[in-house]
Amino acid sequence: MKLTTIKGPVEIDSLGLILPHEHLFTDLRGPHVPGYAKSEPSAVLKVVQPFLAEAAAAGVTALVECSTVGVGRNLSVLRSLADGTSIHIIAPTGVYRDAYIPQSLREADEEDLAALWTKELLEGMEGTSIRAGFIKLAMSDDGPTPLEIRNLRAAARASKNTGAVIASHTIGGRLARKEMDVLEAAGLDLHRFIWVHAQTEPDLSILREAARRGAFVELDTVGAPFQPQTELLETVTALIEAGFIEHLLLSHDAGWYNPARHDGLPEEGFRGYTALIRVFLPELLRRGITEEQVRSMTVNNPARAFAFYR
Ligand SMILES: [Zn+2]
């Protein structure tokens, strides 16, 4: 099985640790703002390359860029970053939540969108031969809105066509349940769905339920200053004890270059991609999690999640 990276397909057996949810270049101003998602690739490289070098030295072998259409996807920037690092970078197709959907995609119907996303996964994006490696969506906190339901249904079709996984920004268990219902009704097997930001749901029984239904449960605030890490460590061990290790994904949701600012830095500063390896995994080992279990969560699971299969 292979991952579809910016530079082409890569055998999963050749990979070690994979970060399933990070950001390299993100524009949260949205697609309606002048200058949206525009930057000189060399300026971005200068800021981001040292963080990629640090991650590569720590042992990261692949990184999934989750900034989708509507929040800054820029292929020239991503290609230049991929050329400047040994880390394999995976780029998304899909679209962000309702308020960020570009006009052209608001008007498309489910079938058109599924065709576009299938083409981006199998042939290339925006007239290039760079293929998307997965489908990234997002739900409004009080959603899903009708357009977001259309997106889920189109994503289910594109996933069924290609075997690509759907990763969706989903705050809380109510929304995750609703989303899984829509996807299943569209005929998707939930082993092709990643509940992104699952740590936002405090009731662990809903995380277990999602895993039982087949979904990947992604905890992606590793090393985040606003996330009590003890809580996250306890969630990981509880889900492992409950028998769901094969459904767990761990990442930082860190980064990123911000084209809205002159220095390219996000408001809170650039958070790097090494807390998982340097702090979080050693802490899990101290709590009795084995090396083999760590490998399962950080190597095997993300490889299986992002490989195209049905
Ligand atoms: Zn994110």
Describe, in plain words, how this protein is organized in 3D.
The structure is a single chain. The protein is α/β, with parallel strands linked by helices and 310 residues long. It has one domain (2-306): TIM Barrel (Alpha-Beta Barrel), CATH 3.20.20.140. The protein contains ten helices and eleven strands. It has helices spanning 41-58, 75-83, 103-107, 110-122, 146-162, 173-185, 204-212, 229-241, 275-286, 291-306; strands spanning 2-5, 8-11, 17-22, 60-65, 88-90, 92-95, 134-138, 166-169, 193-196, 216-219, 248-250. The strands form three sheets. A six-stranded parallel sheet has the order 6-7-8-9-10-11, sandwiched between helices. β9, α7 (204-212) and β10 (216-219) form a beta-alpha-beta unit. α1 (41-58) crosses α2 and α4 packs across α5. The N and C termini lie close together (12 Å). The model has no long low-confidence stretch (mean pLDDT 97). The chain binds zinc ion. Zinc ion binds at residues 21, 23, 66, 253. Residues 21, 23, 66, 253 line the site of zinc ion (ZN).
Characteristics:
310 residues; alpha/beta; TIM Barrel; 15% strand; binds zinc ion
Briefly say what this structure is:
The protein is of the alpha/beta class and 310 residues long.
Low-pLDDT runs: none
The end-to-end distance, rounded to whole angstroms, is: 12 Å
**What proportion strand?**
15-25%
So, the CATH homologous superfamily? Metal-dependent hydrolases
What is the number of strand segments? 11
SS-based structural class?
Answer: alpha/beta
Layout of secondary structure:
Layout: E1 2-5, E2 8-11, E3 17-22, H1 41-58, E4 60-65, H2 75-83, E5 88-90, E6 92-95, H3 103-107, H4 110-122, E7 134-138, H5 146-162, E8 166-169, H6 173-185, E9 193-196, H7 204-212, E10 216-219, H8 229-241, E11 248-250, H9 275-286, H10 291-306
Parallel strand pairs: 3-4, 4-5, 6-7, 7-8, 8-9, 9-10, 10-11
Antiparallel strand pairs: 1-2
Helix pairs in contact: 1-2, 4-5
The chain binds zinc ion.
